[in-house]
């Protein structure tokens, strides 16, 4: 993501539903027939953040609500082309993440007004593109709670934190975690590093090793690979987005977990009713609706 995107990001959450725009998407057979849906992901579907979207889509497919296909490991430069190909194939809903390709992706959305787009984004919805809704996983409250637990578990008061990129979506969770830690360990110290990738477990693991060598005894595993390092060195880790405790039973203490099902369910209901429009679907990631 470019600095210009970061500097212009608006952080206002809209708590109310946007007014529906009549005639945006035809109701037609949406209520009776499965909605043709595509996922476009810049990382493998097993990556934490994307895996939650993929799991929710597969559940909707199993329930007969959607016909779901997806493309993974799509580069930012290739993302608009893949979007257009799915639109031309008759897809009626596209989900994915456009954090690194905001401007180009929004141009494609405007080109296909009969397709609903539900995309992870650093920007808010644009009334000029009424078929584009945005979302993110607002799990900072849960991250804060994991920090309280981590602060009570540490012996050294030294925490290692390995993230992907220093963008608002990541920084928000990290700061929430640190605030929670200070509730139970006011003198805590934090080592923070970003690996410049959304999916590079070996690099994240090596970065974590360096922090452990520098005294960290609890790791914040924002990326895959960190818990592996913690497990090998016999220290604790805090998970992010998914529950990895079964994979690291003696390492991962707790995790802030995201469920995408409420977000997708809301979008599918709107499409079926013919009322899908520009909105901030991030509110469906809050605790109250089960996100």
Explain briefly what this protein structure is.
The chain has helices at residues 3-8, 48-62, 79-88, 102-111, 140-153, 168-184, 201-213, 226-233, 261-273, and strands at 35-40, 66-71, 93-97, 116-120, 132-135, 158-163, 189-194, 218-221, 236-241, 252-257. With 291 residues, the protein is α/β, with parallel strands linked by helices. The strands form 2 sheets. The protein has a 5-stranded parallel sheet, sandwiched between helices. It has a 5-stranded parallel sheet with strand order 7-6-8-9-10, with helices on both faces.
What is the secondary structure topology, with strand pairs?
Layout: H1 3-8, E1 35-40, H2 48-62, E2 66-71, H3 79-88, E3 93-97, H4 102-111, E4 116-120, E5 132-135, H5 140-153, E6 158-163, H6 168-184, E7 189-194, H7 201-213, E8 218-221, H8 226-233, E9 236-241, E10 252-257, H9 261-273
Parallel strand pairs: 1-2, 1-3, 3-4, 4-5, 6-7, 6-8, 8-9, 9-10
Model description:
With about 290 residues, the protein is an alpha/beta fold. It folds into 2 domains: about 160 residues, Response regulator (Rossmann fold, 3-Layer(aba) Sandwich); about 120 residues, Response regulator (Rossmann fold, 3-Layer(aba) Sandwich), CATH 3.40.50. Helix content is about 35%, strand content about 20%. The chain has 9 helices and 10 strands. A 5-stranded parallel β-sheet has the order 2-1-3-4-5, sandwiched between helices. Strands 7-6-8-9-10 form a 5-stranded parallel β-sheet, sandwiched between helices. Helix 5 runs parallel beside helix 6 and helix 7 packs across helix 8. It is elongated and about 55 Å long. It starts with a helix and ends in an 18-residue tail after the last helix.
């Amino acid at each position: 993501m470019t600095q210009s995107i970061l500097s212009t990001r608006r952080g206002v959450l809209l708590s109310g539903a946007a007014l529906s725009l009549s005639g945006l998407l035809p109701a037609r057979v949406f209520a009776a027939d499965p909605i043709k849906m595509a996922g476009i992901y810049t990382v493998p579907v097993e990556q934490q953040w994307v895996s939650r979207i993929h799991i929710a889509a597969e559940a909707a497919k199993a329930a007969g609500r959607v016909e779901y296909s997806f493309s993974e490991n799509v580069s930012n430069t290739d993302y608009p082309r893949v979007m257009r190909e799915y639109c031309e194939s008759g897809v009626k809903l596209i989900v994915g993440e456009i954090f690194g390709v905001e401007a180009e992706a929004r141009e494609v959305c405007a080109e296909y007004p009969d397709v609903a787009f539900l995309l992870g984004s650093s920007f808010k919805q644009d009334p000029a593109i009424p078929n584009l809704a945005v979302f993110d996983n607002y799990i900072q409250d849960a991250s804060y709670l994991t920090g309280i637990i981590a602060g009570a578990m540490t012996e050294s008061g030294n925490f290692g934190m390995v993230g992907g990129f220093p963008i608002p979506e990541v920084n928000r969770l990290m700061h929430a975690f640190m605030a929670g830690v200070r509730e139970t360990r006011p003198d805590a110290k934090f080592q923070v590093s970003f690996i410049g990738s959304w999916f590079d477990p070996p690099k994240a693991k090596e970065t974590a090793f360096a922090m452990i060598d520098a005294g960290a005894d609890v790791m914040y595993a924002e990326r895959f690979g960190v818990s592996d390092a913690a497990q090998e060195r016999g220290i604790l880790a805090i998970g992010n987005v998914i529950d990895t405790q079964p994979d690291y039973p003696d390492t991962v203490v707790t995790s802030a977990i995201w469920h995408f099902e409420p977000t997708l369910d809301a979008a599918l209901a709107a499409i079926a009713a013919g009322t899908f429009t520009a909105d901030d679907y991030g509110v469906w990631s809050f605790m109250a609706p089960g996100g």
